């Protein structure tokens, strides 16, 4: 019987890494990031990576881990505002960044995973990101041609997962995780709770197991808050 | 007396209608959330995958899995739904959000908006701003009229654009302008802050505009 | 306060109908069809409709109701195999049919709802459905240009819905319902159970209320089985 | 002795591998579901929005909300997941399904497949067939070798195509053919049904093929 369950993040990623590969990572800010898998990638020392993610976390957390160690050669993202190390490397020309509008980024990855090689979108027409892209009018409205993204490896963080690879995400920790899971040759999921098939209601599954090649239960879950905002009790 | 940030936001809140789905940008737009008229049912969209944003949590009740697009801890409410980033921007690009209230660095006299970067200074990114201005049918920009003595309402944006001819309404500390896309001039001054006169607005505005006060 | 709840299907559709309009309908076979809303459309007598749906049900059920009364001028679908009345009208040239591969149909509607005017797909290259469509190569593979679909009205059937319009579907009755809900000026949902906001776990909601303008609770739910297949107990 | 339908399906079942996600067409392909080798973990995809299809329900336990792509009542199993039609065809077109076993009306010597319509006779539709042959990396066609005395393995399909150069393997009651796309001839006879010889296959095959029996 096929087995998708791996004992830990390090063994799950071990034979999947090579220099110059493209890795997709779920997460938005520090929310829903596959941090244990990223740490395993950091520890492996693999280099010259192209990383596709919404934003590279902060210094030393999430994709920030790989920025610090200079394992990232190129970042495809919509935002890099809270990572000072990345900003320094970028302004010094040491790392490449391809800016994508967030919706275009999400849609490009979705297209890659869904077998759509390219699509037209009104987003970004007349801006810097339109440079070098075909523009074409539909219903009188100019649109840009954008291409699908498909990676070598996708890393996602889920709340619950079963041994078949069916995944459930929690609240806004869902974000880019489901789409990343669809758009790589190999998808590895880290989960807070590993359960048996049938324990998750089949109607609630957000990522069907078909997209998940390997799954790892986290021994302990450490979550970070980037900006704690609270209100006072009346 | 020019409007303060809270008053700019209050003016923006008057653009809301009962039943609207609304996306608020970071900065002054965020203040609009606390100024929604009583009895009006408004659902706030957060681009990271949520409709129906609640207020900040009480101290100690924050959840790292529940943040807004500004990465701040928030809460859910009974009407809340969660979804992924693809669905979130499907809503945005598909025109399902009724209105977006955004900050601005520059607005041109044809309704171009620049609000995502200052070359050489910022390494941030457009996040969802380009998608919002392309997809949401009504774009309201709230900003200080001038920055360091320079008008932010310009003939042509000198900063990288977020979108071309996308702004519908501009609310500054001095005045409110409607943008009639396709007309020239497109900018129409429709409202003044208290004790601000047209001369003061003219003196502080690099963009061409017509008066349309009533 | 905005109110989305309507007392019944007839009042929910009443002021939304005009001859020649385009109506999208969820459902696959007889599973998950918005049958009460379709019956209300039938009763209205509105004519010359373009219907977008995966398949037009069977005689007298689902879209079949509107076929019988000749209210359908054109069908955009992937299949029409089990509706004899439709077959007769089609072979007699009385109704138009635009065949779409099922995945292309789903993707076109999804594109319409998500603001994507057009996309490329490998499906259908070299077949009859490629006729008149632009063909373009991506990564050495020819693909067809397909356009988004956006309707005047969408009808969906959900299992549970709250008064905000958040919807939950059950098992394979989900099918085309969620995508149809995204791709029309007005979407009306019929639900088996209407509940208060908060009664459905916010993580499980399949169609967020933003897509639903009107919602109707069914007084009684009649579901049809097209092909009953069972096994004997050992 | 040529294979019967069950035996054709059994030969097709040998194309499965542990862990595969599999889409089965209607007709002979459906029989494959009951012939999955013991101990092999296979998840069946149903294009209407389901992975992990279970068997038919026991009498009285049918659920109108739970059907397969052939509109037959079925059941779920512990590994089952449900999703919408968009996600379902995202899996298909995106190449995530490992193999699809489909029925055929005609297969050409270059691997073209016709299996969705007979003009003037059928008002059915392609359903998901064109998406499957375009998206699934391995397409196995199972069919009777001849229909009314006419070979279904043809030089060129005369019926409307489902896809061009999409078939990887053809299993008929007489033989098994591999399709080596791009080669000429692309059809390679790799296996015979018991007591069927090459002469019989040649006599019943309009398409050009090479022998590659071992």
TrEMBL record, chains A, C:
Answer yes or no on keyword Transferase.
yes
For this UniProt entry, the molecular function terms from Gene Ontology, in alphabetical order, are:
CoA-transferase activity
Q: Which InterPro entries match?
A: 3-oxoacid_CoA-transf_A, CoA_trans_fam_I, NagB/RpiA_transferase-like
Keywords from UniProt, A to Z, are: Transferase
Q: Which NCBIfam families match?
A: pcaI_scoA_fam
State the name under which the record lists this protein: CoA transferase subunit A
UniProtKB/TrEMBL annotation, chains B, D:
Does the record's keyword annotation contain Transferase? yes
Among the GO molecular function terms of this UniProt record, one is:
CoA-transferase activity
Top-level taxon of origin? Bacteria
Q: Name one Pfam family in it.
A: CoA_trans
SMART domains listed in its UniProt record: CoA_trans
Q: Which family does it belong to?
A: Belongs to the 3-oxoacid CoA-transferase subunit B family.
What is the protein's name according to its record?
3-oxoacid CoA-transferase subunit B
